[in-house]
Design brief:
heterodimer; A: mainly alpha; B: 6-stranded mixed beta sheet; 12% helix; 48% strand
Amino acid sequence: MYTIDWQQALGRQEARASVRARVAPVVWALGFTSMLTDISSEMVSSILPAYLVLHLRMSPLAFGLVDGLYQGAAALLRVAAGFAGDRWRRHKAVAVAGYALSAMCRLALPAAGQAWGAIVAAVAVDRAGKGIRTAPRDALITLHSAPGDLARSFGVHRALDAAGAMLGPLIAFLVLAAIPRAYDLIFVASFCFAVIGLAVLVLFVRAPAAEDRPSRAERPASLAGAANLLRDRRFRALCLAAGVLSLAAISDAFVFLVLQQRAGFGAAAFPLAAVGVSLVNVVVAVPGGGLADRFGRVRVFLGGHVLLLGVYGMLLLPELSLGHVAACVALLGAYYAATDGVLAAAAGAMLPAHLCGSGLALVQTIVNAGRLTVSLVFASLWTVAGLDTAVMCFLAGLPFALGIAGILLVRSGAYRVGEPFQGA
Amino acid sequence: MSENHSRAPRSAVAAFLVVCVAVLALFAGYFALTRAADPSSEPTSETDTAERIAEVRQGPHLVFRQTRQDRTYGQAVLAPLDGPNEARVPTSLACERVHVAATRGVCLQADRGVITTYRAVIFDEAFAPRHEIALPGVPSRVRVSPDGSRAGITVFVNGDSYAAGNFSTRTLIVDTATGQIVGNLEDFAITRDGRPFKAVDFNFWGVTFADRSRFYATLATGGHTYLIEGDVESRRGRTLRDGIECPSLSPDRTRVAFKKRIREGVRLVWRIGVLDLASLEETLVADSRNVDDQAEWLDNHHVVYGLPSATTPGSSDVWAAPANGSGAPSMLVKDAWSPAIVRKGNVES
């Protein structure tokens, strides 16, 4: 219904319509799929260290060894899956495959018992599933949303996603509190959530029919076409800007670590800080998306990174109170809400429909590669030059990155894409 | 879209309900099946436990973590060395790892919650708690000095990691009389070949005491795992040899049993080895399985170590093997973990 609506009218009066009416049912369905899947995966990952180390007596050192390999493999899969969705025009089918693969791993993990290789394989396949489903899912959100409400749609999706990430560990805790050592129950319950999530996807997410997008029939997605995406000035600028900015963002794990050292809150409060960030993300993602639709996604995306300056500034304070910690958590949550879904919306708005999956996969992969790099860089800086110097480098680097990103986005005209009445 | 339906078709809703009911039935069925078949817990009369503890303590005995799948799972238990599978005396302490020597013991506990916290409980001869120490991470190793006065505790601290899945360790020395932390190995002055040795990636684990002050441990840095010899009083240590992890000093103090890291294809496995401290000669014990444990000595000729049970997830067994690499491993205690061997002779020497 929205395809017709947005093509006809995207008047400002519609801006006042409620979120519920303006976000396509398919996007809600995808949001609930993500929420249920995140509950499923987070309830397992929150107990995995205890399960492996305390229950199965495995060494975390052995386990961590191959961890880095998966991240690279997952990135390759993400791009491949994004392209496969475009190529076969089957975003939904590819997404279903990704979700189903991860669901299967929920049962594979306990079935693996103590077999080290099987556990590693189960975790690897789970990550592969995550890599496969991300880009086709975001392509579905893009293809099912009115261009004028794209950031809001992504906001709804990311809010539900973050809610799942908060609920998962909580459910796992409640199960273990009721029945100690019931790791098997956690795995079975996790499988159940994953199956329900998959059912929502299969039953309530309509695949965008090929006839919905006449242009797609004329231009089948090809590898050359996908590579040509980077020839587009605006999209290339967005990719570069997102990459540069991701290199200036200290991962939240490190921010918590600095807070822990500065404010002296215990390691036990680590998960609490993460929950706080998710909570703020849940609350801010939808209005943040609305703001982005109204004033421009690129502006909000850049603005989100300005919030990080506040976080870095606080990390350099000699004394940190609980209030500072709370403010950092709030800023981090708002940063995610203003950048994650908004970037996808900015990219989605400038991508041709037939290459939507490939393009979104590309942006996500660039950002993830940047995050991985920045973790290594920050860790090395911390080791070599000390914590203050490391944070100071990033505090100085972020405005620089913002400047570069700003120039790239303005000169290419990318910042104007997706503004009201300019929908692609 | 071509068709106008903001609502999902009825058939989809019906199918979704069917899936939900099926999933719920699966969960309920699994729950009923596994929980009904729970092995009935063995009754323990708690009134005479103190007497039974005292009785077992009179002879050579073991203290270990019970991993039998019953009500006593996870508890520290005592058992006589000549029949550890028959007469087990459960204590009221639930431990992830436990070790005892002389009149003191240390039990590393996990307090599971939304935020799981960890602590060390120092207990006395009657297994009554004396002190508690909050721990900064997941319990890994604990050893009490032969005179019972000090303990070395290693925990995994995942907060120090660069990427998820990368752990670092922290090793603390505690005074069992006061319950105070008297040292963190990261603060000790370490030398290598007589020169000061310091790096930010230092990780220490697996303390084993020679007496109340002298100890051995592992120092990992830059891809090496050094056996170090240290001294709590002077807060110093020196590296002895590379490639040695989780040392455990023999009762006669001439050898250390340790974990040797071996690469088998893409995976790393650990084998138990024995290092002669005088000749620096290494011998692997005759057990080709992957052992991730700090070994303990049954006597001067046998090492013991835990291995996950081949049949029951969450259970583990304690195995013994000749220290000179001969013979074959044999199961010493079924459903046990983290064994401490107490022989009067060892303790007082």
